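Below: protein 1.
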Amino acid sequence: MTNKPKHALPVIHAMLICERVIVEEGSQKKTLVGIFSGITCRKLPLIWPELWLYVNLSDVVRRHIIKTELVCLEDNRQLLENKGILERKKLLDWELTWSFRGIRFGKLGTYAFRFWVDDDIIGEKYLHLRSAK
């Protein structure tokens, strides 16, 4: 007996945090500037001016509800959330980008950007906030 899912989920090929995403007019090519996974801070709370999340995925064979959230793994507190829809785009990759401004980090530790499709987390990218002292 095989356990087949009720529906196929898209596949994530890349999930990156960066300082900026530049999108070229015409070709829509993306340049990711300043890819990082950690922030060093001198005092809390820290208000981070801006960061971008880039997600590359494929195998979108039907319409899906998507959600991106940032949570503190220490207490599972959600800092932000963004929702949207993915439409069918068979045999083509999706390149999704979000800009987040003024994120307030209240404690040191590990945070996770979670990418949800329907009711399943299909990807996570960790962001580590550490003290400069």
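Below: protein 2.
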Amino acid sequence: MKVFVLVFALLFIDSPVPTSEKKKSKFEGSWKLLKYTYGTGKDLCEVPEFISYIKNVTKTHFSWCSFNPEDGKVVGVGGGTYHFDEDNYFEKTDFWYPTGSGIPGTETSFKYAFEGKNWTIEGYVKSLKLNPSTGEFTEIDSTYMMEIWQKLE
């Protein structure tokens, strides 16, 4: 009887939780960009109607796409992996289009906040310049960025 109770208890202790019941992070889901600013001293701007930005975040990866909602033409895409801690959200960009930005391979740290269905990130993104003789990118500056995303249902 003691062995039965012990085996029964171990089943509950070591029993994996089905994926559908695991708690998702607040980051996971699909998001639409509402407002943004790039550079210091600028007010937040509304995203114009002729462009739409969607970001999808899974347990370990993110991707975004900007496109014209009227004709469906893609303007840009990017993505990679992410992680977070209590104060910061980190994106490591693995791919980016249009090419030539030097952003792939970089990691950016953002402060983040959630308020209702909105997610705000802010930080400094690196500005890189291509050295044509070596083919390597060097950091030349960093630019302040703030974005407000709204969770899509």
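Residues 2-14 form the longest helix (13 residues).
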